[in-house]
Amino acid sequence: MLVPDFPFSYDDWLAHAAGLGSVPDAALGTEVAVVGAGMSGVVVAYELMRLGLRPMVYEAHQVGGRLRSVAMGEGGGVVADLGGMRFPVSARAFRHYTSLLGVETAPFPNPLSPATRSTVIDVGGQVHYATSLADLPPMYAEVARAWSDALGEVGLPALQRAIVERDTATIKAVWDPLVARFDELSFYGFIAASRAFASLPFAHRELFGQVGFGTGGWDTDFPHTILEILRVVATDADSEHERLVGGAQQVPVGLWHRPLEEGEGRHWPAGTSLASLHHGAPLPGVSALRRGDGPDGQVVVTDRWGTERAARAAVVTCQFWLLSASIDTQESLFDDDTWMAMDRSHYAQSSKTFVMVDRPFWHDVDPETGRQVFSTTLTDRMTRATYLLEDVDADGNPRLDAPALICLSYTWNDDALKWLSMDPPARVRRMLSSLAQTYPGVDVAGHVIGEPVTVSWESDPSFMGAFRGALPGHYRYQRRLFSHFLQDDAPPVRRGIFLAGDDISFTPGWVEGAVTTGLNAVWGVVRHLGGSSAADNPGPGDVFDDLAPVDLDAGTAGTAGTPG
């Protein structure tokens, strides 16, 4: 996921033998507050610990954030990922940490992917069973071809090749003009204006919204800026997905407990871990942030029980709406432009519901049709997307006698809001009723065991939404937030507090953005404390001017136009 706005190779930076830099000896052991123990916060804390600093991690709920996994059943062998559950192979900075921890992966069963035995699409009352695109009516191939052609009209194939080759000059030459051209154009506006779709009836655009590309329908993303979608395609974020066997939460939890090895890092002895530095658990959630009154201008963090602690620097990784809504944040910590970017940004809603079943009954074959009785499902009904997750043996074969998992419904934005007022039993009843329209005669409920688990991220007070989704005209906001880790020109009152997390990144909703913005903040903290990157391993701030995102206020802005 070499993001074209700032194509810095974070995976190479992480893998370099020189490490992420160093701080002066006098700064060793310095306390740095980290707000939030999701993936971004844990990466920040882990790397600061390796650098010889003392992270003080605050968490309002549990280590993992939106990498939240729930073990279902008495044995706990079936794990539901309520947040991130599919991870692109291209997310190489995140994979640095999964490799470090030895996390096992398996292909994710997306619709029509090689890991999915069959897919059923139920749109407009027409049900189609498929094992490949060729099994679907010609209209589906026409939609897929139109989407590919629309991307070709704006040079996406050339951008993808440049990203694979890490040709940053070509990446910027192709991408930067698209930013100026499309910042104010929505996803739907792009589709409707493209030559490829303009020659087709409206029904093709409607079908594209319902079925989409890669992971499923995208019409709930139609209001977002097309730049968000072009990034997803360019970086292969929506293809070649894997799941983490045992659940995604094991990665931040694993880093929390991972001890330093002999000779790894500075200052702390071998065996030190984030858990040991925190006596086993993070500090309580944060209720207030302010600048201290002393001459050193430390950041003062107040936890939910009223205890104040001062730190030389702070990294805020929670969703930034919380800085206005539930954390009493001193306004002068951020300038007006940054507050505007945070307050005016848009958050997407997301809902998931899982049930455990006694066995992966979808392997059963209907003797009359020769087809699987149940499949991965895309539909225009309320469930929208249903995924089938099963345990496999050492050879990758499904364990047909073991409990399995159905994600009954995975929805976004308006579709997610339809479930918001329902409790878990009501959701499951409605979902089973919806699926019964697609699979008449299939007794899904008869296989359900245990209790369902569900989440609506917008109703969780620690999140208030699933992730930021940029609307047309929001590129300036994205650039301000992403660039916040650069503070050389900031007044002292605003230095030393850094924003991080996937909603600060150009790829919100993807854990890779959580990791990379966390690494940006690590670079910022090191510089703030008088340290630097190694000469032969420059960090993101060292090369920022060469790779910087487009500045639409610097005379390079264009006007939103139509593709081609």
Outline of this structure?
The protein has 564 residues and is α+β, with helices and mostly antiparallel strands. It has 19 helices and 22 strands.
**How much of the polypeptide forms β-strand, as a percent range?**
15-25%
User: What sort of overall outline do the alpha carbons produce when their principal axes are compared?
Assistant: globular
| Overall pLDDT confidence | 94
Largest sheet: 7 strands, mixed
Structural class given helices, strands, pairing? alpha+beta
Helix content: 25-40%
Low-confidence parts, pLDDT < 50 over ≥5 residues?
556-564
How many helical elements? 19
Evaluate the radius of gyration.
24 Å
List the helices and strands and how they pair.
Blueprint: H1 10-15, E1 31-35, H2 39-50, E2 54-58, E3 69-72, E4 78-81, E5 87-88, H3 92-101, E6 105-107, E7 119-123, E8 126-130, H4 138-153, H5 156-165, H6 168-182, H7 187-193, H8 195-198, H9 202-211, H10 226-234, E9 241-244, H11 250-257, H12 274-277, E10 286-291, E11 299-303, E12 308-311, E13 313-316, H13 322-325, E14 328-329, H14 336-344, E15 347-348, E16 350-357, E17 376-379, E18 385-389, E19 404-412, H15 413-417, H16 424-438, E20 448-456, E21 467-468, H17 475-482, E22 497-499, H18 511-528, H19 544-547
Parallel strand pairs: 1-2, 1-13, 7-17, 10-14, 13-22
Antiparallel strand pairs: 3-4, 5-9, 6-9, 7-8, 10-11, 11-12, 15-21, 16-19, 16-20, 17-18, 18-19
Helix pairs in contact: 2-11, 2-18, 4-9, 5-6, 7-10, 14-17
